[in-house]
Specification:
The structure holds 2 protein chains of 2 kinds. By secondary structure, chain A is mainly alpha-helical. Chain A has a domain of about 180 residues: Orthogonal Bundle (MetI-like fold), CATH 1.10.3720. Chain A is about 75% helix and about 0% strand. The radius of gyration of chain A is 24 Å and the shape is globular. Chain B is globular and about 75 Å long. The two termini of chain B are about 30 Å apart. In chain B, about 75% of the residues lie in helices and about 0% in strands. By secondary structure, chain B is mainly α. Chain B has 13 helices and 2 strands; from the N terminus they run αββαααααααααααα. In chain B, strand 1 and strand 2 form a beta hairpin. Classes of the chains: A mainly alpha, B mainly alpha. At the A-B interface, helix 1, helix 3, helix 4, helix 5 and helix 6 of A face helix 1, helix 3, helix 4, helix 5 and helix 6 of B.
Chain lengths: ~280, ~280
């Protein structure tokens, strides 16, 4: 049953086989995607025609590799910008929220905490449409009242940033709160006794302590934003992010350039994942 | 003291702005929009959007199907994840544990779109699995394995697996080995140990895993859209159709609100049955 209890050989072997199969199930689609990125073929399928880097570097016109694919490169750049702003905004507001819920007491704190958790249980599609509606309503209102046209309230880059920000902040808040809860508050009291004011305490004592959690949460926020599909789908304007752009290509038939992009995404996110793990181990 | 109050307001302001402007108001707008017809000055209050939902079988059948398949997916995910979580936490050698856990998390850092795309090139008519079947002589003609309900459920299980495994691993890990040893010494069989000791202990982990998986399935758009067939319409696709294709935002808002109500209700029931609070499950 467990390590310390005796098991029949057949039981141990079949259990281990099940776990191995599970990991095969987990990695098969990713492995196949990566391998077929290098196949010298016009379709992402077998048979194997030999090794080729065409889908990365070929300038066209028959095969356009990712390095020469202007549309996909633009989408990658848009996703980078989106993720950059989302991770900065979520980290700032999420850290504020962590301080608010861990160190302050105020009426209706429970209700506000519940509201803060709500984005966890609202499906992403719903967040997307409600934000689309609200931005539209606000846009109409401002135009009617002040005669002003606010372009970012239509589906656009900044609406995507706001939409993703609205739920990723909850994750950042939870991660930073978890670390703040373990903080020894006598350190703050000591600093206050020695004449520091509240801001000096936060700047020199609490924030350095929180840094691993903030860096980790920021990394996760970056990835969540980079890969978000459901919420972005409804808010995206004329600049599609990478997942939206890939979706349109996959839906309408695919070329191995998608495998090449996928491989880059897999490598990139694995590096971020391992780095994140390493940072949190060290903390 | 006055300075401390200033700090409180500085923490509160961004958090309130986030929650009121991006969570509360948009969802109120969603509710208002669903109860109106038309737009601008000719709009009027109506329940017609909800009447359409109940009057048109295609709408509520899709809704029921989506809910049923999400429940099935959650159950399958649990049945598959439980033995794996138990293996990692209690059976695998201690040195292997961290490695297996990292391996388990890795695929989920990769975009959902890439994972689905991997399954598509594995399973489609010209896919890798069919190629292998033909080569091995196990099939005479390629079989289309995509675009049916079973494959779609497999895809949903695959994409949401992580959110079940992680809470289960930490739940099983916190179980004291000696309890299992004691039960074994007193003559309990495997079934009794699972049923009377392991599962009751893991209840909080099971609840939080099940809630997240259920919610993610309900709100999923990519997997049913890319892996499901013509007849496996998902409710999020109905919402998308109303918003983007028919441009009927009032009807789409009503659908969105119904989906939100369903997911909130199921989560509430889940928490009530197991006697837990949202805050506990989230942390």
């Amino acid at each position: 049953m467990i390590r310390t209890l005796p098991n029949s050989r057949a039981y141990s072997w079949s259990y281990a086989a099940f776990v191995v199969l599970y990991f095969v199930f987990l990695f098969a689609p990713l492995a196949v995607t990566c391998v077929l990125a290098f196949n010298d073929s016009n379709f992402p399928s077998l048979p194997w025609y030999g090794f080729s880097l065409d889908w990365f570097a070929s300038p066209g016109p028959e095969r356009v590799g990712i390095l020469h694919d202007a549309q996909n490169l633009r989408a990658i750049w848009t996703s980078f910008q989106t993720a950059f702003w989302v991770s900065i905004m979520t980290v700032v507001v999420g850290t504020c929220a962590a301080f608010l819920f861990e160190q302050e007491n105020f009426p209706l704190k429970g209700a506000l905490y519940f509201l803060m958790l709500a984005p966890l249980v609202i499906p992403g599609v719903i967040l997307g449409i409600s934000q689309l509606l609200a931005a539209n309503t606000a846009g109409f209102f401002i135009e009617d009242t002040f005669g002003l046209d606010v372009p970012f309230l239509r589906p656009s880059f900044w609406l995507v940033v706001l939409g993703q920000f609205s739920f990723i902040t909850t994750f950042v808040t939870l991660v930073v709160s978890a670390r703040l809860r373990k903080f020894d508050r006598t350190l703050e009291e000591a600093a206050l006794n020695l004449g520091a004011n509240r801001w000096q305490v936060i700047r020199h004592i609490t924030l350095p302590y929180l840094r691993p959690a903030i860096v980790g949460a920021g990394t996760v926020a970056f990835l969540m934003s980079f890969e978000n599909f459901n919420t972005t789908l409804f808010l995206v304007g004329s600049e599609p992010t990478l997942p939206i752009n890939l979706y349109l290509q996959v839906r309408d038939g695919s070329t191995p350039v998608i495998n090449a992009i996928s491989l880059l995404l897999i490598v990139g996110s694995s590096i971020l994942a391992v780095a994140n793990l390493w940072v949190s181990r060290k903390a | 003291m006055r300075r401390a109050r200033l700090g409180f307001w500085l923490f509160l302001a961004p958090v309130l702005a986030w929650l009121v402007l991006l969570i509360v108001l948009p969802h109120l707008d969603l509710l208002v929009m669903s109860l109106r017809s038309g737009s601008g000055s000719r709009a009027s209050w109506t329940l017609q959007n909800y009447a359409n939902f109940f009057g048109e079988p295609i709408y509520w059948l899709t809704f029921v199907r989506t809910a049923m398949y999400s429940v099935i997916t959650t159950a399958i995910t649990f049945l598959l994840a439980m033995p794996v979580a138990f293996y990692i936490a209690k059976v695998a050698r201690v040195r292997l544990q961290g490695f297996l856990l990292t391996l388990l998390l890795l695929p989920f850092w990769v975009s959902e779109l890439v994972r689905i795309y991997g399954w598509m090139i594995l399973l489609r008519e010209s896919g890798v699995v069919n190629f292998a079947l033909l080569k091995l002589g196990l099939a005479d003609a390629p079989v289309e394995m995509l675009y049916n309900d079973a494959t779609m459920i497999m895809g949903l299980v695959y994409t949401s697996m992580l959110f079940m495994v992680v809470p289960l691993v930490s739940a099983v890990e916190s179980l004291d080995d000696s309890l299992i040893e004691a039960a074994h010494d007193l003559g309990a069989g495997r079934a009794a140990i699972w049923w009377r000791i392991i599962l009751p202990h893991c209840k909080p982990g099971i609840t939080s895993g099940a809630i997240v998986v259920f919610m993610l399935c309900l709100g999923n758009y990519l997997t049913p859209n890319l892996m499901g067939g013509k007849n496996s319409l998902w409710f999020t696709e109905q919402i998308y159709n109303q918003f983007i294709a028919s441009f009927n935002w009032n009807q789409g808002a009503a659908f969105g609100f119904l989906l939100l109500a369903l997911s909130s209700a199921i989560i509430w029931i889940g928490l009530k049955i197991t006697g837990q609070k949202l805050g506990e499950v989230a942390s």
